[in-house]
Amino acid sequence: MDTEKKSKVVIVGGGSAGWMTAAALSHLLPRDRFAITLIESKTIGTVSVGEATIPSILEFNQMLGIDEAEFLSFTHGSFKLGIEFHDWYKKGHQYMHPFGPYGVNMNGIPFHHYWLKDKLQGKEDPLSDYCLEYQAALNNKFCHPQAQSRSAMANIKYAYHFDAVKYAEYLSAFSVKRGVNKIIAQITKVHQHAQTQDISSVALSNGELIEGDLFIDCSGFKGLLIAQTLKVGFEDWRQYLPCDSAIAQPSESLSTIKPYTISTAHECGWQWQIPLQHRIGNGFVFSSQFLSKDLAIDCLAKRLPSKALSEPRQLNWINGKRQQAWKNNCIAIGLSAGFIEPLESTGLQLIQSAIMRLLSLFPSGRCQQVDIDTYNRYTDDELWRIRDFIILHYKATQRNDSAFWRYCASMPIPDSLQNKIELYQSSGRIFRENNELFSEISWLSVMNGQGLVPKAYHPLVNNLSEQQRQQNLSHIAGAMREAEQQMPDHKAYLQKYCRVST
Ligand SMILES: Cc1cc2nc3c(=O)[nH]c(=O)nc-3n(C[C@H](O)[C@H](O)[C@H](O)COP(=O)(O)OP(=O)(O)OC[C@H]3O[C@@H](n4cnc5c(N)ncnc54)[C@H](O)[C@@H]3O)c2cc1C
Predict the structure, then answer these.
(1) How far, in Å, is the centroid of ligand 1 from the Cα of 158?
(2) Is 344 annotated as a binding residue?
(3) Helices (H), 29-179
(4) pLDDT at 248
(5) Does the residue 12 lie in any domain?
(6) Within the chain, what is the greatest distance between any pair of CA atoms?
(7) So where's the catalytic machinery, residue-wise (predicted)?
(8) Cα angle vertex 459, ends 457, 465, to 5°?
(9) Do 413 and 471 reside in the same domain of the chain?
(10) Among the four 20, 67, 79, 283, which has the fewest Cβ within 10 Å?
């Protein structure tokens, strides 16, 4: 890009992806060198269902200097300590994927091997006893990390639930305050340089022509620039992840605000419950191959936890990713770059990591192929690993009560996931690959929760005497219980910290 004049960055789309990108770029790029424009269409609208997050969102907000209490009050947000899975392994069974760790590693060996020895000896010793976030969630408790505490309270790991529409509104005001030129209009034509095929400008329904040096495609599933203009193909993962539709419908709040997301498996998919301060976000995710829209609407209506607040809304997608997220001078961020169904709340995280990757490879002139290739390689790697983690939930199940679950249990899976499962089953070992998003704790939670049982624990566990091992386990479980008892009720905490101002 020419540094003599201002470089023009054009963001197409004003959903969460567009506004998260605009917020980060307007905060970090110097205003005297960059002009940022965001174009959104009120006619086309946004997906607006990204309401559950994972802990990395805290880093994003901190990078922007966002005040947490003000943010949560504005977005009607609540705290999230993990996801509780009901009926996934088999009907009547439940487990949690908490954000915090289990116990503490001892002598360099991950904690769960010490616990596994008990399990392999047939003792009923739930892993949940050793995780503070898990215990707090089950008891509807929450507080911020207590830096001065010498217990697990010092490092409580949490994320947020929030209203997606309010989130975009918040970031929009944030970005406009920092100089982003917001245009409400529909893009009717995209122009490219004849020789390079770079995107040169977009024509708007209001007659304006917006030129740019760098275009960020945040236009949602259709990928207005990356797919429709630059013709980048799509890697389709339907054979591994058959759910391609959702019905979303909010309902009234209950007296308790749970500090976790609930995911309940049903015959042909699963249902989410996301408790906010003012309502519960609900949705039913299903595969259109196995269930009709009308039955899905019916299924959700019967299982809403409280009175519906609006009509059901349908969403459709294909799980998969764009073959290249960055091509020429266009970077796809958000749904235009790919989507993995919302089971582990990874949508906003993928936007965040794309923004961070873009910042670290930000072009200083014309986009360089080496930067583009690096960006695309890391994007692919991130998505493939997350895809494997999501597939695990469907594959490792004992459910066979419907054609949907029988398909999931028998479907082929990627070798990368097969290797992970085999390693865990043979020796309880888990390795985090290439800095992948989900840590050993996450993989352990889901592999254990989905009923996978290793044949053996780490041999060095036996370096601890049996008496010492038992003492350590009961000391850790006791410390978790004690810490949980000191934590306040989640709803009371919200009311004090970030009550929604009316
Ligand atoms: C069922 C479901 C549940 C989800 N749950 C979660 C969750 O719990 N947590 C999570 O992190 N993520 C979740 N996600 C993902 C999350 O919703 C998305 O990642 C997020 O909303 C980003 O969407 P987006 O901004 O890419 O696209 P969109 O919201 O679709 O925005 C597209 C934008 O492009 C604009 N646009 C399109 N075409 C034009 C045009 N021609 N001219 C001008 N403007 C145009 C539109 O006006 C709009 O502003 C979920 C997704 C789905 C489908």
Answers:
(1) 24
(2) yes
(3) 56-64, 68-74, 111-120, 132-138, 164-177
(4) 97
(5) yes
(6) 78
(7) 80
(8) 100
(9) yes
(10) 67
- Is there a binding annotation on residue 14? yes
Is position 17 annotated in a ligand binding site?
yes
For Cα atoms 354, 358, 361, give the angle at the middle one, nearest 5 degrees.
Answer: 140
Provide the number of structural domains found in the chain: 3
Report the alpha-carbon distance of residue 66 to residue 313 in Å, rounded: 31
List the domain range (segments joined by +) for residue 465: 81-158+399-490
DSSP for 370-434, please give it: HHHHHHHHHHHHHHHHHHHHHHHHHHS----SSHHHHHHHHS---HHHHHHHHHHHHH------T
pLDDT at 2 over 50: no
For the chain, give the mean pLDDT. 96
212 shares a domain with 339 = yes
Q: Which amino acid is at 36?
A: I
Tell me, in angstroms, the distance from the centre of ligand 1 to residue 220's CA.
5
Closest-CA residue, ligand 1 atom 1, reads 246
Handedness of CA 204, 206, 207, 209 (dihedral sign): negative
| Alpha-carbon gap, residue 76 to 498, rounded angstroms | 8
Active-site entry in 8, 80, 119, 327:
80
Does 80 participate in catalysis according to the annotation? yes
How high is the pLDDT of residue 502? 66
Give a yes or no: residue 299 inside a domain: yes
Q: What pLDDT is attached to residue 4?
A: 59
Over residues 92-110, the pLDDT tens digits come to 999 999 999 999 999 999 9
Structure confidence by residue, pLDDT tens digits, 342-354: 999 999 999 999 9
Residues with CB under 6 A from ligand 1: 13-18, 39-41, 44-47, 49-53, 186-187, 218-220, 224, 246, 283, 315, 317, 334-335, 342, 345, 347-348, 351
Nearest protein CA to atom 15 of ligand 1, as residue: 347
Residue 428: inside a domain: yes
Q: Indicate which atom in ligand 1 lies nearest the CA of residue 350.
A: 19
Determine the distance separating the centroid of ligand 1 and the alpha carbon of 148, expressed in angstroms: 40
Query: Alpha-carbon dihedral of residues 479, 132, 424, 448, nearest 10 degrees?
Result: 110
19, 43, 46, 351, best to mutate for ligand 1 pocket (most atoms within 8 Å of CB) = 46
14 CA to centre of ligand 1 in angstroms: 8
Q: Which atom of ligand 1 is nearest to the CA of 221?
A: 30
Q: How confident is the model at residue 124 (pLDDT cuts 50, 70, 90)?
A: confident
Single-letter code of the amino acid located at 495: Q
Residue 394 belongs to a domain: no
Q: Can you give the pLDDT at residue 501?
A: 75
How far is ligand 1, taken at its centre, from the CA of residue 382, in Å? 19
